[in-house]
Amino acid sequence: MKLALVLIGLCALAAADAVDDTFYKHQTQVLHLVEHIYEPISSHYEDLIYIKKTYDPLQHLDLFKDGEQVKHFVHDVTHGKFLAHDEIFNIFHPQHRRQMIYLFEILYGAKDFDTFFNMAVWARDHMSPRMFLYAFSVAVLHRADCKGITLPPAYEITPDMFLTTDVMRKAYQAKMTAQKTVIPMKFTGSIKNPEQRVAYFGEDIGINSHHSHWHMDFPFWWKRSYDITKDRRGELFFYMHHQMVNRFDAERLSNFLPQVEPLDWHHEIEEGFAPAAMYFNGQEFPMRPDGMHFHDLPWFTVKDTEEYEDRIRDIIAKGYVKAKDGHVVFLNGTEGIDVLGLVVESLDHDFNSHYFGRLHLNAHVLLSKITDPEQKFGTPPGVMEHFETATRDPAFFRLHKHIDNLFKMHKEMLSPYTKEELDFPGVIVDAVKVVGKSEDSTANQIVTFFDESHINLGNMWAHTPEKVGIEVTTKRLNHESFKYVITATADKDTEGIVRIFLSPTYNWFGQEITLQDGHWGVIEMDRFPVKLTAGENVITRSGKKSVVTIDEPMSFAEIHKAVADKDATHFHKEFRHCGFPHRLLVPKGRPEGMHYKLMVVITDYHKDVVVPDMDVEHMDKLQSVGYCGVMEGKIPDGKPMGFPFDRPVPCEETFITKNMKFVDITVKTRV
Ligand SMILES: [Cu+2]
């Protein structure tokens, strides 16, 4: 009887997640709508043309959550009160953001898919392309009836936001002359600029795409009045950026560069940056020469930003913050980091937002507008004002190191974990090994290399003759596949969570990094639940399954093909597209090998998991929960992100309990 119930439960789950013909229809419609985004709706999509010609939102006001809002919106858009078609949409610009939110709320509040889609076609036809695209994408990611719909990678929808001007020009020439072309894209800068050694990381199209997707899954302007409450979104903001900075530092180390220095409001920014990129309307992304200083902007000053920051430091030092209703929230527990994340990212929160200002947003804008603070020359926004271009600028990591130091200050004030909190009595990690893909691979060695990625530009312009292939190739960091083999002994049948981290063994000076110094810089590799039986257990886990990364996203062409073939293996309603590119999981290393410590910790599943009825199998299926949490409900792992390395480690010897094992590994790069 019990088994039968379980089977029925599983079937119901599978049926709810399965995709059907309606899904394929909707997926196709979404694809059509984001093609050739800068051009009018293309005549070869009859479905879209029909909607464009026949749909009038004002005739269907009852099909929206707030019909009045739709009425005002249509009026404002059709009376030229919105951003013009050829102006650059900038999410950091308050007016642009307000307009985008206006559209988002209408799309999100449409009562059925057809109303949502018809309205989206109307908006696509009347609005600035990237403003439309942003609101539409966030709506697709959050609407219940869009679950499982795959958006093509951002670098195929708006390649101009990812590629350099020379590449875009060559591609356009190829389109005009209808010539099949493969264009290699180089990283910006020259050998004279030491930062160029790590440009492959900041300019990687995957990392930029990840960053922009993350900020669409967790928009900073998200209101709690929307139906979806995002669990630990402040902590996720901290942790995802913290890990990006740690990853960048690891790349720097392998390229003989010191750790990234935090920005200082009163110190010059030594490194300039020239994006060598152009917006769709022909305006160039501004470059920043070496040695620039921050300047006040007409609408906020450097001093304002410092004051906001001082207030944040003040609550960190005090260890509490007062909510708007007067009640005191203590920061010295595990939830403190989430509160700080909310305040720093200026999310919709319970605290006095005027008092704390918009530290993270202002910092991005101050950096972006540094060369034309008064807007005397009408310079367009810099790369720092778009999530899909920000990481190209090395100063992005400097800014985030500065912000990360606030979180560090908070964590350093927490008491170190006790032996009871660290240990998992009865469980011993006996051995850890990293095994490469081939039989004869060297144990405990991971090999990285650069491969080539092909980006199809066929989507950029309508009416590109079918057979003309226009592609761009870029170099990307990658690694050979590997697996972890962990041997653990348990004194009884039990369940645990395996947490795997990587930490460089030596610093830039060649000194061994102690855990006291190095705990904050560790890189999370994986986190997964296991069932342990009494006695010895051998746990094998492929590096590919990492909970912080996702596989290569499907291209436009691949999604089209999967839809045409009705290939359900590519579509799943619970599938997440947020996550760090898997290729970048392992830092580059050096040709002669670079030493790292691989740290494995097994903790008690029953103490850690906070979602009732969350069994090991289900938790193991959650993808990219590491950086991207969950879209609905609670993140199952209740431990602070980065546990147990997030708090100070006063003494390495007492910190390392029997449920942990640290081994030396080498990361070698193939040349
Ligand atoms: Cu970000």
TrEMBL record:
Quote the InterPro entries the UniProt record gives: Di-copper_centre_dom_sf, Hemocyanin/hexamerin, Hemocyanin/hexamerin_mid_dom, Hemocyanin_C, Hemocyanin_C_sf, Hemocyanin_N, Hemocyanin_N_sf, Ig_E-set
UniProt keyword annotations, A-Z: Monooxygenase, Oxidoreductase, Signal, Storage protein
**Pfam families recorded:** Hemocyanin_C (PF03723), Hemocyanin_M (PF00372), Hemocyanin_N (PF03722)
Q: Which residues form the Tyrosinase copper-binding domain?
A: 393-404
Q: Which GO terms describe its cellular component?
A: extracellular space
Please state the span of the N-terminal signal peptide per the UniProt entry.
1-18
Sorted alphabetically, which SUPFAM superfamilies does this protein's record hold? Di-copper centre-containing domain, E set domains, Hemocyanin, N-terminal domain
MF terms per GO, please?
monooxygenase activity; nutrient reservoir activity
Q: Which family does it belong to?
A: Belongs to the tyrosinase family. Hemocyanin subfamily.
Q: What is this protein called?
A: Hemocyanin subunit 2
Q: Per the UniProt entry, what species is this protein from, by scientific name? A: Perla grandis
